[in-house]
Amino acid sequence: MAVTARIHQTTPQSELRLGHVAASRSTPDYHALLAANMVLGGQFVSRINLNLRGSKGITYGARTAFEFRRRPGPFAPHVSVDSAATALAIRESIDEITAIRGDRPVSTEELAVGVAALTRGYARNFETLDQISRAVAQIALFDLPDDYYSQFVPRIEAVTPDQVTEVAARHLDPARLTTVIVGDLDQFGQNLGQLDLGQPAVLTADSI
After folding, report:
1. Half-sphere exposure for 8 (CA within 13 Å, toward CB)
2. What is the C-alpha separation between 110 and 38, in angstroms, rounded?
3. What is the pLDDT along the chain (208 residues), one digit of tens a residue?
4. Other CB atoms closer than 10 Å to residue 25's CB: what's the count?
5. Nearest of 52, 32, 51, 12 to residue 170 by alpha carbon
């Protein structure tokens, strides 16, 4: 893992990204990964948001996302935190990513909430001509089957907690995460050493 810190001397918050290249849109694990992301950081009641916002009170919101492309795209948590809580937010985010891989498997209750978020109101994605045209474009871009949208809800609902945990272990790797921090290095730099992420590469506004 690596840390890149960029200095903004008057910034009261740190903007964090932790990520690595993950899966492509064609992965057979696509639907299970969508569900895994909902549990981990894809909604308000996700693990990372409940940890950093609800339990620690160090952010207004944290989220995670897979960016699925024709070739493998990135996975990354996104969070803004008080500068003094930068190291804590990084550590807790990494711990949550580690836990969902098997240390704390996805529960039936967590999965049910995530599945509901993905499927309830799904038909509203096709209400306008613009939405329909974008849906057709997705079929063409990713070589999806013609019945993809009619099969989306059943396939999401068929995902099991064990499958979600398995795909998280397969596609998320804390050891490969690169951490990017945009903020005031003076406020959090002394705490980065405790994270054991390696020597940070520091970029200033003048160096980029």
Report:
1. 10
2. 9
3. 555 555 555 668 999 999 999 999 999 999 999 999 999 999 999 999 999 999 999 999 999 999 999 999 999 999 999 999 999 999 999 999 999 999 999 999 999 999 999 999 999 999 999 999 999 999 999 999 999 999 999 999 999 999 999 999 999 999 999 999 999 988 998 899 889 888 888 888 776 6
4. 18
5. 32
16 neighbors 77 (Cβ within 8 angstroms): yes
Strands of the sheet with 13-21, listed across from one edge? 62-66, 74-82, 13-21, 178-183, 2-7, 201-203
Beta-carbon count within 10 A of 44 CB: 12
Alpha-carbon gap, residue 132 to 163, rounded angstroms:
30
> Rounded distance, CA 193 to CA 152, Å?
44
Burial string for 89-109 (b: 16+ CB within 10 Å, else e) reads bbebbbbbbbbbbeeebbeee
Q: What distance in Å separates the CA atoms of residue 74 and residue 20, rounded to the nearest whole number?
A: 6
* Contact criterion met (CB below 8 Å) for 79 and 59: yes
Q: What is the dihedral of CA 99, 101, 107, 113, to 10 degrees?
A: 90
Does the pTM exceed 0.85?
Answer: yes
Residues facing 76 on adjacent strands: 65
